[in-house]
Amino acid sequence: MKIVGKFPNVRLRRVRNSPWIRRLVSENELSINDLILPIFIRDGKNKVESIKSMPGVYRYSIDKLNLIMNKAKKYKIPMVAIFPFTQKNKKDKFGTEALNKNNLICESLKFIKKRYSGVGVMCDVALDPYTSHGHDGLLINKKIDNDKTIKILVKQALLQAEMGCDVIAPSDMMDGRVGAIRKALDQRNFKNVSILSYAAKYASSFYGPFREAVGSKKNLKSDKKTYQMDFRNSNEAFREISLDIKEGADMVMVKPGLPYLDIIKNIKDNFKIPVFAYQVSGEYSLIKNGIKNKLISDEAILESLIAFKRAGASAIVTYFALEIARKIRNFN
Ligand code: PBG
Question: Is 151 a catalytic residue?
């Protein structure tokens, strides 16, 4: 592409000179349709509990889920993503609780799908909230066993589908799990349940606050580098995405968000499939604390989210979803 003309005939500031012209020439917008709201769930009754590592984010007991779901509905957030905080006594080596028909995710799915049928629900498929070692898969002889893990993940996905989950989101990074889950879903006639694969998920330091939020931080003694991606790589993300698409992913996710905009753009340019971005907990808390400490203004939230749109993301999982939705609504 060639830029024609030169100064003084061309003055690019002319298209920036007032808010109305900036609105007319703007290339990207953020809309409520782009937002996915993560929600943390805990056991007990009458609990809305703050999370130290994530200011402004709470864990809800199921009887209080209506507080946040009412807001999601009011702002027309298209989808929520639910994550369980699992008590220590429910965790074991095998992540058995993941397959309990009455676990927090199953109970929340029933609650939400009954009362908020217009809101999509996505659920992570991975064992980390449930394992005593905090890993996403089965640890056998100190190694994560890919194929044995898949067997459990398939069961976890089927259980979620049975409970009404709309979007199954494998976030475990085992090889071959998307294909296995798609096959099992189809065999059980869950043809309309879709798969959003966390296809390019990096072993990242930015997940720290989330691990506190779901209670896996203290359990995890090592890192997840044998299954999550190496942050030095981008060709590998390309391979991950191609495989997951072949195996039947309907949408793919890149995670974390801002440090990986190049990956989003690369995928968007090369595969014509919806790409979602996950602005993860560490990104959220850094921005939130920056605003709280008056280091940056709260317009940083919009700036960060528009960056995903510029890179080509179709939707963004963000802990700012409600906050930014409220702003978008008030502008209109
Ligand atoms: C679990 C999972 C993680 C996140 C989403 N699902 C953490 C991890 O892989 O350790 C991170 C989300 C965030 O940091 O906001 N597989």
Answer: no
